[in-house]
Design brief:
This protein has a single domain, classed as Alpha-Beta Plaits (2-Layer Sandwich), CATH 3.30.70. It contains six helices and eight strands, in the order βααββαααββββαβ. It is globular.
Length: about 240
């Protein structure tokens, strides 16, 4: 039986390009968000970007934490969430002449590698919270983002349960206002072979910090179809968004 794809926004599938970024080591951590905003602004010069990318949220890692939870990664600096006009936009954008001429040359100034080398094409499914909310978080929103179940072998898009798995909403994670699961739908670049990208939206930074402190990352929590597996977890806040 053919699996039914999750539908959003009045029945249309929502496609995203999501990337997990490391900054250029020449930038201090506190300089990254501004350099990232400057890079995003170049997209206004690219007509094709405006046609293919409907919304953007730049989620920078929260730096001002007295004692980061053990579950959180310090190896990455941010996550970019981009809603695409359609699935084909996720491949077309990489060969677009304007993007190659204007945005790609600026990427090494901001990031440790070219964006294509750490980007994932995903299909969105809302697991908890109103489907009528904004598709992407807005400026200031606090989000815990998890890249889950990394494998060196491409397994194809995974089916998702209709209800949010207990592992993804246990403890203080239950206090989230919204849970979004983005299922990776195309083979990822080397080293980024995750199956799902999870977004947990919180009303306050304190709630998010309590949630990550409650996450069980013990060996027994790694297994199962909807366990964490090999993963990266970041506590982020939206530092730039459009529209």
């Amino acid at each position: 039986m053919k699996r039914q794809e999750p539908r959003e926004q009045g029945g249309a599938a929502v496609w995203k390009m999501i990337y997990l970024a490391r900054r250029n080591p020449a930038l201090r951590p506190e300089e990254f968000a501004q350099a990232w905003r400057e890079h995003s602004a170049l997209g206004r010069q690219c007509r094709s970007v405006g046609q293919r990318v409907q919304a953007v949220a730049q989620c920078a890692r929260v730096l001002d934490m007295p004692a980061p939870a053990a579950a959180l990664s310090q190896d990455y600096d941010g996550v970019n969430l981009m809603v695409l006009s359609g699935r084909e936009a996720g491949s077309d954008i990489w060969s677009d002449p304007e993007t190659l001429a204007i945005m790609r040359p600026d990427e090494p100034r901001v990031f440790a590698d070219y964006v294509r080398n750490f980007s994932l094409l995903c299909r969105q499914q809302v697991l908890h919270g109103s489907r009528s909310d904004d598709v992407l978080p807005q400026q200031g929103q606090v989000i815990v983002i998890g890249f889950l179940q990394r494998s060196d072998v491409w397994q194809g898009a995974a089916a998702l349960p209709q209800a949010c798995p207990l592992q993804w909403r246990s403890g203080a994670l239950a206090r989230t206002s919204r849970i979004v699961c983005n299922t990776v739908d195309a083979q990822a670049p080397d080293g980024y072979g995750y199956r799902h990208v999870l977004e947990w939206w919180f009303d306050t930074l304190e709630q998010a910090q309590a949630a990550v402190a409650s996450i069980d990352v013990s060996a027994c929590a790694q297994g199962g179809e909807f366990g964490w597996g090999r993963h990266v977890l970041l506590l982020t806040q939206v530092t730039h968004s459009r529209p």
